[in-house]
């Protein structure tokens, strides 16, 4: 009975993790492969390395929730068409419950243009493993000699260390079009397309579809200043998440050796129509590299426990130079 209650408790954590922590980055714009498979190969360069790390709830737990993702994608020319191939690895550790998720996903995308619209579609296929190691104490471990629980005592439970694995499939598309000086883009991605089943013990949990909509653009306010407004909406069964805001940037002088521009911006995260956090981000844009740092200030009803302390993120994206020759049209007189 105790084991069944324990597994139900872990499953509730897994369910919450699936809804609220399933690849949950504040700097979603700097985690392209976890945002939308259609982002694969969608950049100016030969290859791209993306890395993002997030830690949260350190104020309410001795062991905070940590998530790290590393991705690599490359532009390809196949059959005269534009493709992209990539791979990313993600590790998520859900605090003191010691629920660990590891994902490795392979991406393939295709980019084309129809009239004035740029269109990209992509798909991901990968392997997911989730496991937990028991750090919970049980009634049989209460030591009357010291008046508290003693984890060194036998818990009289068997097979508390559980794991589950499954194949996962994601898909998505991105459409953009230029209107004068701006080129807004609209993206939609669908995760857990096959509704995979994760099982701990005899308890099964079928993952529902996760829908993501993301919209963004760059607006040049002047020669020196620009703005990048963005909206992200996620829906996972009964859970909903939205991040909206803008990063304001400043173009540094051309002769600056270190960076091309700097940016700062606030975003707001709302969960189920309630404001969850205010996100402050700063960063640098180099010729081939972007660095971002953000902090979530918790303003939800949970803040008495967090003291407004939320999550910290740091991201890095490096793009190699584009060695693909540009097409040049040379006028030629006809004879």
Describe the SSE topology.
Blueprint: H1 2-20, H2 32-35, E1 47-56, E2 65-78, E3 81-94, E4 99-114, E5 117-132, E6 142-143, E7 148-149, E8 162-177, E9 185-191, E10 197-200, E11 203-206, E12 210-216, E13 219-220, E14 225-236, E15 239-251, E16 261-271, E17 274-285, E18 289-298, H3 303-306, E19 309-319
Antiparallel strand pairs: 1-2, 1-19, 2-3, 3-4, 4-5, 5-8, 6-7, 8-9, 9-12, 10-11, 12-14, 13-14, 14-15, 15-16, 16-17, 17-18, 18-19
Write a structural description:
The structure is a single chain. By secondary structure, the protein is mostly beta strands. The chain has one domain: Porin, CATH 2.40.160. Helices cover 8% and strands 55% of the residues. The chain is built from three helices and 19 strands. The strands form three sheets. Strands 1-2-3-4-5-8-9-12-14-15-16-17-18-19 form a 14-stranded antiparallel β-barrel. It has a two-stranded antiparallel sheet with strand order 6-7. A hairpin with a 2-residue loop joins strand 14 and strand 15. The N terminus is likely disordered.
């Amino acid at each position: 009975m105790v084991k069944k209650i324990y597994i139900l408790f872990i499953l509730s954590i897994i369910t919450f993790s699936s809804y609220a922590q399933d690849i949950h980055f504040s700097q979603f714009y700097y985690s392209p492969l976890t945002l939308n498979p259609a982002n694969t190969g969608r950049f100016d360069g030969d290859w791209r390395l993306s890395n993002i790390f997030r830690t949260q709830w350190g104020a309410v737990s001795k062991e905070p929730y940590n998530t790290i993702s590393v991705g690599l994608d490359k532009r390809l020319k196949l059959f005269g068409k534009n493709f992209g191939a990539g791979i990313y690895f993600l590790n998520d550790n859900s605090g003191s419950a010691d629920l660990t998720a590891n994902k490795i996903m392979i991406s393939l995308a295709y980019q084309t243009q129809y009239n004035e619209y740029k269109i990209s579609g992509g798909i991901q296929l990968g392997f997911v493993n989730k496991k937990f190691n028991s750090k919970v104490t049980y009634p049989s471990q209460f030591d009357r000699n010291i008046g508290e629980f003693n984890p060194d005592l036998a818990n009289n439970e068997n097979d508390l260390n559980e794991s589950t694995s499954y194949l996962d499939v994601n898909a998505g598309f991105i459409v953009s079009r230029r209107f004068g000086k701006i080129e807004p883009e609209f993206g939609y991605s669908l995760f857990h397309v096959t509704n995979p089943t994760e099982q701990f013990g005899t308890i099964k949990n079928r993952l529902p579809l996760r829908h993501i909509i993301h919209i963004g653009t760059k607006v040049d306010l002047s020669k020196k200043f620009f703005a990048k407004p963005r909206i992200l909406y996620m829906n996972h069964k009964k859970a909903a998440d939205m991040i909206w805001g803008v990063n304001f940037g400043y173009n540094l002088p051309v002769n600056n050796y270190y960076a091309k521009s700097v940016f700062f911006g606030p975003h707001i995260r709302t969960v189920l129509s309630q404001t969850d956090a205010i996100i402050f981000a700063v960063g640098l844009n180099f010729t081939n590299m972007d660095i971002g740092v953000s902090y979530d200030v918790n303003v939800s009803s949970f803040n008495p426990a967090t003291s407004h302390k939320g999550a910290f993120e740091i991201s890095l994206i490096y793009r190699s130079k584009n060695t693909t020759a540009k097409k040049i049209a040379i006028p030629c007189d006809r004879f």
